[in-house]
């Protein structure tokens, strides 16, 4: 069994969007700096305020594998924000945490942020 080393990169700043104006997507890249196949088994999205994830976020895929190869070999996870009329307005932020079979750090996190304004 070889080394598996997860690395997350990407910009999950969704910027400012007007409620009802359509979706905004951002991409998270997961790569493997190790020497063996990395399996990531889940993604959790945590708002800074400790509440549950708002319904206006989706992401796909929700699990997968990444061959070794560092930044040259990666899996894209697309996060989409749907700021709909009637949703809460304001600034939101938190962490996206990915769980994997990394030998030393099986969970890694990256920040996300979004601001919703009235039409």
Describe the structure.
This protein is mainly beta and 119 residues long. The protein has a single domain (6-117), classed as Immunoglobulin-like (Sandwich). The chain is 0% helix and 60% strand. The protein contains no helices and nine strands. The strands form two sheets. Strands 2-9-8-4-6 form a five-stranded mixed β-sheet, with no helix packed on it. The radius of gyration is 16 Å and the shape is elongated. The mean pLDDT is 92.
Q: What is shown here, in short?
A:
This protein has strands at residues 6-10, 13-18, 24-32, 38-47, 57-60, 64-66, 70-81, 90-100, 107-117. By secondary structure, it is mainly beta. The N and C termini lie far apart (54 Å).
Count of individual helical segments: 0
Question: How big a fraction of the residues is strand?
Answer: over 45%
Mean pLDDT: 92
Largest sheet: 5 strands, mixed
Domains, number: 1
Q: Low-confidence parts, pLDDT < 50 over ≥5 residues?
A: none
General shape? elongated
CATH architecture designation: Sandwich
- Described by its quaternary structure, the protein is single chain
Radius of gyration: 16 Å
CATH superfamily membership: Immunoglobulins
CATH fold-level name: Immunoglobulin-like
Task: Give the spatial strand order of the biggest sheet.
Answer: 2-9-8-4-6
CATH class (first level) name = Mainly Beta
In total, the number of strands is 9
Q: Structural class, judged by helices and strands?
A: mainly beta
Gap between N and C termini: 54 Å
Helical percent range? under 10%
Topology as a string of helices (H) and strands (E)? EEEEEEEEE
